Task: inverse folding
């Protein structure tokens, strides 16, 4: 029954730089070989030569979205002993062997006396000149043939994006002969140590076609490789075999999100939000709808550090959590560290979210952006000097109150909500030195009629100098400045109207060294110093009629210095360890007046018995924190690793928060004379496996974390009217533990992941006296103790142009304090609450959906555009945000409050001028 | 009156997408039924009341009085005053003016029939200045979840504590209003016989109703630059209410309270949010100034306070510039008498200008909860 069921669905042509290549889309069942070849010959406009006797019993089953002729032929013959070879723009099929079409390339370069191929002509250009020869492995010569260097050879390489010239982070080189590899750092560099000789190497990175090169190593030298973006290549399913060595697997508990996976997730209000994507991973949960902030492994939201090109961001979202604080279009790499945090990072207990932006296209100018009903964004990038220097400019703004002005309610109609952000990146690549600067600014403003006004902004700049001293030592020096500030005005009651301005400034200098000690040993060390300057502002009267007294919260200063050293050592190919020590020294600095309290009395104004005065920049107290960072990776077999990590962290900065979620006017506060820094220790054990069947990846991780001196607000804490913060908070212990399961299908027509987390988080604040206790000294669940979380992300690629994505979230309800009884005082019903967080609000469940439709994908179109339709909360479920009790006409009623109780639909138009692949 | 007002900011989201629905969580009732003491001593000579009850489950609010307690008041000059039970759980104690001097502190001690000894902390009596002024302004109010703006009165209190050290104030008030039923009782029909009252019964045509708010109003001038508070907002009356139709009287009581009492009422208030929003503060666990002396682990609820008091009554006859828009409670229904023949029960009828059936509220103002006895303070 040799019959074609469905033949060609679509058929595209597009032109590359040098050659004409056709891409076919096929769906074939049980077709005999001869018919199959004539189909290919007809549609691909090629000739295929073969001998009938080899193929008489071959029948073809194929389903391919888009592939080149040679790829199709190879796939078709996968199960046979036949090999396809290109031959003069046509193809030859032979049993067991490939046709040799030319002499090995490296012979041509034997008379090349230069030390390496790092010349003005890039590989792309060389290829351009020579014309590309399909599947011919090119040879890269490293070092000087005549140097006769003895012993090991150090190869320093740089992996770049072929289309944009930007360095690729986390790209890997794998040497087949030695089964060794290396990964590129944040600047696209890698170092690998080899013996002199010839090697088959593979360069790969997520989202790129794998580059295969023949490496001919003579002596120390450099390599520069450009990888082609895989946007139009066959789906990664075909490159399955190349995944056997993934260096990122050496970092336990590191989650990496690429721009591609971010794009695939449905988003609310038409914006991509990496924080929302990270909430879909195990161990990370959102603080709540309408709030920025995440809880990682049972830690509070102030325990996460968030960096964009090393600039710390203290408020990561716009419009109360509904929009990310920066344009996702400019992101290149987003890494989350939550189990093993490398020694170079410190200052937060739970996690590090590290964002690196793209450096901008070094070859062509391009412009892209998106428009949705709430905001629009635009990104411009291009070379300043071809292949050397680039600029990336991105801006985003909400439209002025468009939505609000359509609300009939007069209070809302006269209100306004605006946000905008801006970033500028400039880079110059001196080959061995890379200089980059980044400037970032974001603003939010909300006025509710004439009742309240609210503003906040992030601003920051970083200058980063990267230099590769020799083949073995690299240094990164960064100067960083950042500010977060907010201003609130409250005009609801004229007599007590007030305004409050707050700011935290962060000035940092850091130097990070990477020293390669041998082929299996890498040393990282460095130092950093941060100066925090907080102006906690004053609660000042607002308006002429306000009778409020000004309450000064005053200024605060702190110095946080740290030294670290860590070593990554591959003891055997299957056992790697990373051991590090970070020593941080923190001091709150003057000028400050510190109040002392009577012994055995609560820290209240009434019990002040003395004070200490510190002069400007005088250290008030020194807090030392030696921290161990240790991890072991054990490769159990070709498809799995077991990882263990022990991590100690400390934190000198925390949030003053007593609301259900994080309010945007939540103040940051430094540890001081009375309030100690918090310290945590975490143990993590993880099992990671590749499941060859269906190309799945799975992991199981367990963790146990213990934190000392965590800050908790007292019942009824008032951070606005009491300048003595030590009177409003207590310090206690926190304990959290959990198990995280992840099953991922990274590629294919259907891809995505399933994640389940079981974890608990408890707080215990106790002391001898009743005022030193919270919840009567009994342990209680933290506000973010959520035992069960299940997330599913599924993407279905209907075709190259149409993708449907769904995201499902289920969470056990958050802990809540409910009343235990009711009584009356002078006719007024009074609700009596007893134990903190004893109950839970109803469970949370949400489904999001998005459909992305790309315009046609012709490569050289002037403008590429796509549409994104997204639905947030598809089922319109009224997820409880809070449950509260009110007294209504003498009766107590309880209500469930949902922030978004309807499906929320947005349509976004994304556009791009210039080369499509250039992103 | 310190509130965390951020939540108003999020009204936009509340109105656009959010949703509030009734929800009854399952609560463990084993911690209900605690002793509650509600007592107060003012600077006015006479009987002072102490209420002793037990708390109840939240879902079933009621007062469970506790009788046969031994209730005593002590002052810090070693005087003891014994209270007598007048009604179930309601104990009264007479304190003469000579003992009610400012600066004197009082405390309470209770022994319950089952032997639990309850004691309060000392609370000091402070002078309370006269009420500076009570007034209203005509404002427009937005009715939640509609776009409608409704005019009405917003009452304010101005406080002036200049030349005194009293800076913590609790305000209580009592509203009384007169309202009328539309018709006298003239005809009734019980299905077979028509009764005519001659003269018509006007006895239930005029009523007075008194209500106390179930909200606590307190403020402090502690954080203000002078001991004055302007425009402290009290309650509001919409033009759709029948309170302002005939006459309205407001009795305002201003109390000076101690720092601890202020703290207690602030905590009560902060737990009583009127509408939810994104950034509500979490509920507080707190207790009053009363504890169990016989077993420190037993929780006792309530508060015993000592407060100076001043009061003032204002009367409002007619509000100019406010157009009333009260939906009539009485809606006469035009009927054919034949239909009622042989029907069970007595109906009220009206025959002037047609045949009408009246609902009871048309002829009986007490149906709406008022009383027909004119209060003593009501002007003629």
Result:
């Amino acid at each position: 029954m040799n019959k074609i069921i469905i033949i060609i669905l679509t058929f595209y042509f597009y032109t590359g730089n040098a050659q004409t290549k056709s891409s076919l889309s096929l769906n074939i069942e049980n077709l005999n070989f001869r018919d199959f070849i004539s189909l290919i010959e007809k549609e691909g406009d090629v000739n295929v030569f073969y001998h009938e006797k080899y193929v008489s019993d071959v029948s073809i089953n194929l389903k391919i979205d888009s592939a080149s002729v040679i790829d199709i032929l190879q796939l078709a013959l996968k199960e046979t002993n036949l090999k396809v070879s290109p031959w003069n723009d046509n193809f030859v099929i032979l049993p067991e062997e490939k046709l040799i079409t030319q002499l090995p390339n490296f012979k041509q370069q034997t008379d090349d006396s230069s030390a390496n191929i790092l010349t003005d002509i890039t590989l792309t250009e060389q290829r351009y000149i020579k014309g590309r020869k399909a599947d011919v492995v090119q040879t890269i010569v490293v070092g000087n043939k005549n140097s006769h260097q003895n012993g090991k050879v150090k190869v320093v390489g740089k992996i770049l994006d072929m289309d944009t010239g930007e360095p690729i982070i986390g790209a890997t080189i794998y040497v087949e002969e030695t089964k060794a590899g290396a990964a590129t750092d944040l600047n696209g560099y890698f170092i690998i140590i080899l013996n002199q000789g010839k090697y088959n190497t593979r360069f790969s990175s997520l989202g790129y076609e794998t580059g295969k090169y023949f490496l001919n190593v003579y002596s120390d030298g450099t390599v520069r490789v450009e990888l082609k973006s895989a946007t139009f290549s066959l789906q990664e399913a075909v490159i399955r075999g190349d995944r056997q060595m993934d260096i990122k697997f050496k970092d336990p508990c590191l989650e990496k999100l690429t721009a591609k996976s971010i794009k695939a997730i449905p988003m609310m209000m038409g914006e991509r939000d990496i924080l929302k994507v990270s909430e879909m991973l195990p161990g990370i949960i959102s603080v709540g709808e309408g709030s920025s902030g995440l809880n990682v492994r049972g830690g509070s939201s102030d325990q996460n550090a968030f960096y964009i090109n090393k600039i710390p961001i203290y408020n990561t979202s716009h419009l109360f959590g509904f929009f990310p604080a920066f344009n996702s279009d400019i992101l290149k790499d987003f890494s989350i560290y939550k189990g093993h945090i490398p020694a170079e990072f410190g200052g937060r207990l739970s996690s590090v979210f590290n964002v690196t932006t793209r450096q901008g296209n070094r070859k062509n100018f391009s412009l892209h952006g998106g428009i949705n009903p709430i905001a629009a964004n635009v990104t411009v990038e291009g070379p300043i000097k071809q292949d050397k220097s680039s600029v990336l400019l991105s801006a985003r703004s909400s439209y002025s109150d468009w939505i609000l002005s359509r609300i009939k309610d007069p209070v809302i109609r006269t209100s306004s909500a605006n946000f905008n952000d801006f970033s500028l990146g400039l880079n110059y690549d001196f080959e061995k030195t890379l200089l980059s600067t980044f400037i970032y600014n974001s603003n939010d403003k909300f006025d509710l009629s004439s009742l309240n006004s609210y503003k906040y902004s992030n601003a920051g700049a970083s200058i980063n100098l990267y230099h590769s001293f020799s083949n073995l030592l690299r240094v990164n020096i960064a100067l960083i400045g950042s500010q977060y500030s907010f201003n609130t005005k409250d005009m609801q009651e004229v007599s007590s109207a007030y305004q409050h301005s707050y700011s935290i400034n962060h000035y940092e200098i850091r130097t990070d060294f990477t020293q390669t000690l041998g082929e299996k040993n890498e040393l990282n060390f460095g130092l950093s110093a941060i100066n925090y300057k907080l102006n906690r502002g004053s609660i000042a009267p607002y308006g002429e009629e306000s009778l409020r007294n000004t309450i000064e919260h005053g200024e605060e200063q702190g110095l946080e210095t740290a030294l670290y050293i860590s070593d990554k050592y591959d003891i055997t190919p299957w056992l790697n360890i990373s051991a590090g020590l970070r020593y941080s020294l923190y001091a709150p600095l003057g000028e400050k007046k510190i109040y002392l309290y009577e012994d055995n009395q609560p820290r209240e104004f009434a019990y002040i018995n003395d004070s200490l005065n510190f002069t400007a920049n005088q250290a008030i107290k020194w807090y030392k924190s030696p921290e161990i960072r240790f991890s072991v990776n054990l490769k159990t077999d070709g498809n799995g690793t077991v990882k263990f990590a022990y991590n100690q962290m400390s934190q000198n900065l925390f949030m003053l928060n007593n609301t259900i979620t994080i309010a945007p006017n939540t103040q940051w506060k430094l540890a001081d004379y009375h309030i100690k820094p918090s310290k945590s220790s975490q143990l993590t054990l993880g099992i990671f496996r590749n499941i060859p069947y269906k190309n799945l990846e799975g992991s199981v991780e367990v963790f146990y974390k213990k934190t000392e001196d965590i800050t908790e607000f007292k019942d009824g804490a008032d951070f606005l009217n009491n300048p003595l913060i030590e009177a409003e908070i207590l310090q206690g212990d926190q304990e959290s533990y959990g198990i995280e399961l992840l099953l991922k299908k990274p590629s294919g027509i259907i891809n995505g992941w399933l994640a389940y987390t079981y974890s608990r988080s408890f707080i215990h604040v106790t002391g001898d006296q009743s005022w030193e206790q919270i919840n009567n000294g009994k342990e209680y669940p933290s506000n973010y103790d959520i035992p069960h979380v299940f997330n599913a992300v599924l993407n279905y690629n209907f075709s190259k142009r149409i993708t449907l994505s769904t995201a499902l979230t289920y969470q056990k309800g958050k802990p809540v304090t409910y009343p235990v009884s009711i009584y009356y005082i002078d006719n007024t019903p009074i609700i009596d609450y007893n134990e903190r967080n004893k109950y839970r609000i109803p469970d949370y469940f949400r489904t999001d959906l998005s459909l992305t439709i790309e315009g046609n994908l012709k490569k050289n179109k002037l403008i590429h555009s796509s549409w994104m339709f997204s639905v947030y909360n598809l089922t319109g479920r009224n997820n409880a945000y809070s449950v509260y009790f009110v007294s209504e006409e003498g009766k107590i009623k309880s209500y469930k409050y949902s922030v978004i109780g309807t499906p929320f639909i947005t349509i976004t138009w994304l556009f791009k001028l210039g080369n499509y692949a250039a992103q | 009156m310190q509130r965390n007002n951020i939540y108003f900011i999020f009204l936009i989201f509340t109105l656009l997408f959010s949703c509030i629905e009734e929800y009854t969580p399952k609560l463990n009732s084993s911690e209900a039924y605690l002793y509650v003491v509600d007592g107060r001593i003012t600077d006015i000579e006479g009987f002072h009341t102490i209420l002793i009850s037990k708390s109840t489950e939240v879902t079933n609010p009621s007062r469970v009085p506790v009788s046969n307690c031994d209730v005593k008041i002590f002052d810090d000059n070693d005087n003891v005053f014994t209270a007598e039970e007048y009604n179930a759980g309601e104990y009264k104690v007479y304190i003469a003016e000579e003992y009610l001097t400012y600066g004197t502190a009082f405390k309470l001690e209770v022994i319950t029939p089952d032997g639990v000894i309850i004691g309060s902390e000392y609370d000091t009596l402070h002078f309370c200045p006269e009420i500076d002024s009570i007034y209203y302004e005509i404002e427009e109010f937005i009715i939640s979840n509609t776009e409608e703006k409704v005019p009405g009165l917003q009452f304010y209190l101005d406080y002036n504590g200049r030349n005194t050290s009293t800076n913590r104030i609790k305000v209580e008030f009592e509203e009384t209003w007169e309202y009328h039923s539309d018709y006298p009782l003239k005809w009734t029909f019980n299905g077979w016989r028509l009764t005519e009252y001659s003269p018509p019964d006007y006895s239930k045509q005029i009523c007075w109703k008194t209500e106390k708010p179930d909200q606590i109003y307190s403020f402090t001038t502690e954080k203000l630059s002078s001991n004055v508070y302007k425009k402290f907002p009290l309650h509001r009356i919409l033009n759709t209410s029948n309170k302002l139709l005939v006459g309205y009287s407001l009795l305002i009581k201003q109390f000076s309270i101690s720092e601890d009492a202020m703290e207690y009422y602030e905590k009560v208030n902060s737990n009583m949010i009127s509408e939810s929003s994104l950034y509500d503060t979490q509920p507080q666990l707190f207790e009053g100034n009363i504890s169990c002396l016989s077993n420190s682990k037993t929780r006792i609820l309530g508060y015993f306070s000592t407060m100076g008091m001043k009061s003032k009554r204002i009367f409002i006859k007619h509000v100019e510039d406010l157009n009333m828009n009260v939906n009539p409670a009485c809606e006469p229904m035009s009927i054919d008498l034949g239909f009622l023949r042989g029907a069970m029960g007595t109906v009220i009828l009206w025959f002037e200008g047609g045949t009408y059936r009246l609902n009871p509220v048309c002829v009986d103002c007490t149906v709406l909860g008022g009383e027909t006895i004119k209060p003593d303070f009501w002007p003629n």
